[in-house]
Amino acid sequence: MQLLYSPTSPYARKCRVVARERGLIPGIEEVDCNPHEDPAELQAKNPLGRVPTLVLDDGRAVFDSPVICDFLEGLGSAPPLVPGVGQGKFQVLVAAALAQGMTDSAVNMVMESRRPEGERSSTAVERWRASILRGLDSMMDYLAVQPGPLTLGHIACGCTLGYLDLRHGDMAWRDGRSTLADWFEAFNARPAMRETDPN
Ligand SMILES: N[C@@H](CCC(=O)N[C@@H](CS)C(=O)NCC(=O)O)C(=O)O
Known about the structure:
This protein has eight helices and four strands. By secondary structure, the chain is of the alpha+beta class. The chain has two domains: 2-73, 3-Layer(aba) Sandwich (Glutaredoxin), CATH 3.40.30.10; 86-190, Glutathione S-transferase Yfyf (Class Pi), Chain A, domain 2 (Up-down Bundle), CATH 1.20.1050. The site of glutathione (GSH) has 11 residues, from loops.
């Protein structure tokens, strides 16, 4: 199995952390692949040309990141990152969805900044920024309902915060959010986060 990823992709990092936390890495070869260079091997497996893309041993591809995380959840014998049923399951999935949406906004802002000046939309950028700030203000509420074992919600939120540090330091997301900052400091020390740190 191969995971096509780029080191700076927050979506790919989430899958790489999930793979490590579930003890799957010896069986998954991670292949560095820059989607913005339109690599043929990526586009052959994923018509969207995006990372992460997981290529199975029989050649079939699994994407995008929420689907890959779900697929990895079914492999190996490590404890699940998503509870099987009930309220707990949906709390975890909503935390992961919150992180995914905030990551979409953060990535969109970076992509927008790379467009020629006259083509950029400051209105769109402000909307994306506002969605991230609202998400940050409520992220701890979503994490607080997930005490105990590590979940996909923790991993998704942690990778989103890591991406804000990488690309949006100017947002100073820790300011006024010390509980979230303390949580991230502890989470970010996990070996899976250290091994996938893009810095
Ligand atoms: N919804 C997708 C988003 C993946 C995505 O947009 N990845 C970016 C890298 S961070 C990419 O491959 N961009 C290349 C492109 O859109 O052409 C997921 O969750 O996996």
